[in-house]
# Entry
Amino acid sequence: MFKKVLIANRGEIALRIIRACQELDIPTVAVHSEADTDALHVRFADEAICIGPPPGYESYLNMVRIISAAEITGADAIHPGYGFLAENAEFAEICASCNIKFIGATADNIRRMGDKAEAKTTMKNADVPVVPGSDGILKDLNDAKKLVKEIGYPIMLKAVAGGGGKGMRFVDSDTELEMNYMMASAEAEGAFGNADLYLERFISNPRHIEVQIMGDKFGNVVHFGERECSIQRRHQKLLEEAPSPVVDAELRARMGEVAVQGAKNVNYEGAATIEFLLDEDKNFYFMEMNTRIQVEHPVTEMVYGYDLLKDQIRVAAGEELGYEQKDIKINGHAIECRINAEDWQRNFMPNPGTVENIHFPGGPGIRVDTHIYSQYKIPPFYDSLIAKLIVHGKNRDEAIKRMRRALNEFVVEGVKTTIPFHSRLIENEDFQKGNFNTGFLDNVKIID
# Structure
């Protein structure tokens, strides 16, 4: 096991990693920017080092300073959490060259799966169902036009290095293709430093379903069922649940087997998520693989009873998983609401500021993963996620009722949050019936 783990992240995920390390008896080091001097992850870690000014590129994305902090403190492993450097192949290589274990995917896997076009080709070769489209990077606009003649409209243009909806365009005609190709390429270049695009046939009214997997260096890979992630705004998830209200035991087994097959094909070690689009006929197609722990991992933990962070750390240290697929049993239903410091009535505008007063919900089946506290100053430099409210019930109906209660108890004063939005969302009749897809918030009036 590791002697000491440095956490190269902030916010609730940094606290989550610290807690996992404490239960594994591993000392921790928190790195932080000047804006996070009073953050809880700084207070809860065994050691803390300031690595730069508030902007992420000068602190949480500064590889040299993070490696220096690890060497100074004697940390032999770095956990990147999610975001920032979690899927940065160069950083994984630097860690390896400094004899520091990167608690995440290998650089090779990050590159192969981070390149969406190559990931699609890799999964296709492993007999994982993929959406019809380009086999790799589009050479140019003419290449795109030629391919569209074969598969037909509508299609989606996507950035090879994309994420969060950047460099993504819906296209329904040749005229739209010409206009959107250049726009998507320019946006991809600006967001990721990579202008390359690929295209896929557009799947009408899909659901976003992802499968959590975990693998070790001995070739063991298991899955923990699926998460439903279709409640999105501009391709950003707002609410997740497990299991999906439309996935039955047979489909769950098939999707899980395919996800495990894909992970084994690339010799994957650690935690990852295989993401699929599920069409109206229950056909599923590979979308992407996230080579890190996900924001929404707690819903899986609540339903299956495994600590994914501890297992991720254990397998990174070279341990065997210690359990098999037959040991993993589903138990009840869990829902997670992402609580953001945003003005949901003004197009979800970020609303940083001071938390004047706070009250967390409690009672049976309630979990809150957060880094905020009374008088905490939410900085304007980072993601607006301030808490994850997770509930568990014996079934989906009980989970919804518990989420209603928990949201009513959750008080944050001083800044606007998405709590009122979630309260309205879970009262929606179609949501309660499980009748939704990725376009739900575009077609249903939640906001006045």
